[in-house]
Design goal:
The chain is mainly alpha-helical and 324 residues long. It has one domain (19-165, 191-320). It has 13 helices and two strands, in the order ββααααααααααααα. The protein has helices spanning 11-17, 20-38, 40-51, 55-78, 86-102, 107-119, 124-152, 168-188, 190-211, 214-241, 248-261, 273-284, 289-320; strands at residues 5-6, 9-10.
Length: 324
C-alpha cells in the first residue's frame, strides 16, 4: 500500500475526519474526567465537608478564588509593555488555571499564556521573557508575604516541619547541584551559552521597559502580591467556614509556607503534595488534625475541582476560537 493506514483509514483521510484542533478541544475535558476518577475519594470527602460548612464564609472563599484570576491577569499585563485585550486575558487566566492542574506545576499555565501572547503579536523571545518576569515577580511576592508574616508571627510555623526529618539539607544540596550542573553545561556548550545570554538580554530589556511605565510596574508587583494573598485568604475563609480554631494570620502563614515547601514537587497542580503540606502546616500552627484535614479538602474543592471543568471547557473554546 502506498498510504500508511491507521485503524483501516489512510492518514490523510483520518486527518480530515479528526482535525488536530478538535482533538485539542476535546482533550481538556477528557483529562478532567480522568483526574476526577483517580481522585474520586478525595473529591467525595471534600464535598461531604462542604455540605456541613458555614455557607457565607464559603461564598467569600469562592469570591477570593475568583479574584485570583483577576490578580493573575494584572500581573500578566504588567509583564509586557503592549496592552493585551482585557477580556481575553482574563478568560485565558481562568483557562490556564485548569491547564495548570492537568500538567506538572506551572507548565500548563505557562504554555497557555505563552501561546496567547504570541497570538497577540509578541515575538516568541519577548513572550518568553515576559513569562519569566511573571514567574519571578510571583515568586518574589509569595516570599515577601511569607517573610512579612514570619516577622509578624515569629515561631508560628517552621518550614522544616513541612519536610520529612533530615530532608531539608539534601533538598538544598540537590538544588545547588542542579544549579552548578546547569552553569557547567552552559559554560561547556557554546550554542546553549549564546542562547541563554540572548534570552537574558531580552529579559532584562523587557524588565527595564516595563519598569519605565508606572502603570505596568504597579500591575506587575501589585498583582504578584495580591495573587498569593488572595489564595491564602481563600484558605482562611474556608477554615472559618469549618470552625478551624487557628488565628487567620497563622492560617495564611501556613498556606504560604506549605506552597513554598512543595514548589519543587513536579505534580500536576500540586495535587496530593499540596494537600499533605497544608494539613501538616495547619497542624503545626495549632489546628486539630481532623478539622485541618476537612478545611484543606474543602479548600481544594473550591479552588481546584469546582473551576476545573468550566476552566477546561473555556480552554477548549479558546483553542477553537484561535485565541490561543
Amino acid at each position: 500500500m502506498t498510504a500508511v493506514r491507521l485503524f483501516g483509514l489512510p492518514r490523510a483521510r483520518l486527518s480530515r475526519r479528526v482535525p488536530v484542533r478538535t482533538v485539542l478541544c476535546l482533550l481538556p475535558p477528557v483529562l478532567v474526567a480522568v483526574f476526577a476518577v483517580r481522585h474520586r475519594s478525595v473529591l467525595a470527602e471534600g464535598v461531604r465537608h462542604l455540605a456541613t460548612a458555614d455557607r457565607p464564609w464559603l461564598l467569600a472563599a469562592a469570591g477570593a478564588t475568583c479574584l485570583t484570576w483577576v490578580a493573575a491577569a494584572c500581573t500578566r499585563q504588567g509583564a509586557v509593555v503592549e496592552r493585551l485585550p482585557g477580556r481575553r486575558l482574563l478568560a485565558v487566566q481562568f483557562a490556564a488555571g485548569a491547564a495548570n492542574h492537568l500538567l506538572p506545576t506551572g507548565l500548563g499555565a505557562g504554555a497557555v499564556n505563552l501561546r496567547f501572547m504570541t497570538v497577540c503579536g509578541l515575538p516568541l523571545a519577548r513572550s518568553s521573557a515576559a513569562l519569566a518576569l511573571y514567574l519571578l515577580a510571583e515568586g518574589v511576592g509569595r516570599l515577601a508575604l511569607l517573610g512579612a508574616l514570619l516577622v509578624a508571627s515569629p515561631g508560628a510555623v517552621r518550614l522544616g516541619t513541612l519536610l520529612p526529618g533530615g530532608a531539608l539539607a539534601p533538598l538544598l544540596a540537590a538544588v545547588a547541584a542542579l544549579l552548578v550542573a546547569a552553569v557547567g553545561v552552559l559554560a561547556a556548550v557554546r550554542r546553549l551559552r549564546r542562547g541563554a545570554l540572548s534570552f537574558l538580554r531580552t529579559a532584562l530589556a523587557e524588565a527595564r521597559a516595563v519598569h519605565t511605565r508606572p502603570a505596568r510596574a504597579l500591575a506587575l508587583w501589585g498583582g504578584s502580591l495580591a495573587f498569593p494573598a488572595l489564595q491564602a485568604a481563600g484558605l482562611v475563609l474556608t477554615g472559618r467556614a469549618l470552625g478551624l480554631a487557628v488565628p487567620p494570620a497563622h492560617m495564611a502563614l501556613a498556606y504560604l509556607a506549605a506552597t513554598v515547601a512543595v514548589a519543587l514537587v513536579p505534580t500536576p497542580g500540586g495535587l496530593g503534595s499540596v494537600e499533605a503540606a497544608l494539613v501538616v502546616a495547619l497542624v503545626a500552627v495549632g489546628g486539630p488534625a481532623a478539622v485541618a484535614t476537612a478545611a484543606v479538602l474543602a479548600y481544594r474543592i473550591i479552588t481546584v475541582w469546582l473551576p476545573l471543568l468550566p476552566g477546561a471547557l473555556t480552554l477548549a473554546a479558546l483553542v477553537r476560537l484561535k485565541v490561543i
